[in-house]
Write a structure and sequence with these properties.
Blueprint (H helix, E strand, L loop, with lengths): L1 H20 L8 H29 L2 H35 L7 H29 L3 H18 L11 H9 L12 E4 L2 E4 L1 H25 L5 H13 L1 H8 L9 H17 L8 H28 L1
Antiparallel strand pairs: 1-2
């Protein structure tokens, strides 16, 4: 199963990069982004159906139902948390004034980096939990504290001018003032100069690390099965680029979604901390994630409509 899914991911990445990259640097239209978002969502559901059918045939109906529910809940949870990545991408591209036709190349590497990083962290997390069960409580406390901090500082915009990584890069590297297409560096008179695109790429990859610190412990609150953790994570990440181009222009309209994400993290963290005394069913977790996400989106849209009507 691992080998088969790995081959599938490589094939879909090749198709995605070829299909969205065939035009070179260009603005990804809303129609194109919507089409690919629906394709990735359909593939995720199709995989869930195939997983259920295979387990039902080989291991019985009970296990098939349980594992498929874990997969769907994990996928929705990771997809929800991935939306926070989109807010950060919007902020980075806006701060560096990255032309929209050049943004997709950075996102390609961002997705690839996220897949590799999460695969490593999932394997590490699974090993730690198998060897030291108490690690689950550390994960739970971390998620609970992260959720509380996110809720309190949801409206606070990070100051990139004071970002230590960005400051270090600017001090130790030759950075051009202007973009040179979607290139990350150029060579002039035998000297390598990095473009602002390279700075954006570094910060996108750093954001992958930060968000993986939240998402990986969160999925282990749903299941400790490494295969379910990995597949649900990867399907959530594969559609991230298309989802960005679909939602980037509407980020302001979902301004309350961060509060919903914070509540989800607090719920998941609390679930992990009380697991020895109260075991919350996976179906209940799925219902909570859907409800919190739906309410935060609806309230955001209604709030945005009221502001526009004034």
């Amino acid at each position: 199963m691992w080998a088969g899914f790995g081959i599938f991911v490589l094939l879909m990445l090749a198709v995605d990069m070829f299909a969205l990259g065939r035009k070179g640097a260009h603005k990804v239209s809303s129609k194109e982004a919507l089409t690919w978002s629906l394709i990735w969502f359909a593939l995720a559901l199709l995989f869930g159906a195939i997983l259920w059918a295979w387990l039902n045939q080989t291991a019985g109906r009970t296990l098939a139902d349980a594992k498929t529910m874990e997969y769907l809940t994990g996928y929705l949870l990771e997809k929800t948390l991935a939306m926070d990545n989109i807010f950060v991408f919007v902020m980075l591209f806006s701060y560096f004034a990255v032309p929209i036709e050049f943004q997709k190349r950075v996102l390609v590497y961002g997705v690839l980096g996220a897949i590799i990083l999460r695969a490593l962290m999932i394997l590490l997390g699974a090993w730690l939990i198998a060897q030291f069960h108490w690690v689950l409580y550390l994960f739970g406390a971390f998620l609970l504290i992260t959720g509380i901090k996110m809720f309190i500082f949801a409206d606070k915009e990070p100051n990139l001018e004071q970002n230590p990584i960005l400051t270090w890069l600017r001090r130790h590297m030759r950075i051009t003032n202007d973009y040179h297409g979607d290139k990350f560096w150029i060579v002039e008179k035998g000297v390598r100069w990095f473009t602002p695109m390279f700075l954006v790429l570094i910060l996108v990859e750093v954001s992958d690390v930060i968000f993986a610190m939240d998402s990986i412990p969160a999925i282990f609150a749903i299941t400790s099965d490494p295969f379910i953790v990995f597949t649900s994570n990867i399907f959530a990440i594969l559609g991230l680029r298309a989802l960005y181009f679909l939602l980037a222009d509407m980020a302001e309209r979902f301004h309350l979604l961060k509060y919903g994400l914070a509540v989800v993290l607090m719920f998941v963290g609390a679930k992990m901390l009380i697991v020895e005394w109260i075991k919350i069913p996976v179906a209940v977790s799925l219902g909570v994630v859907i409800s919190v996400l739906g309410i935060s989106i609806l309230v955001s849209l209604k709030s945005s409509q009221k502001k526009l009507s004034r």
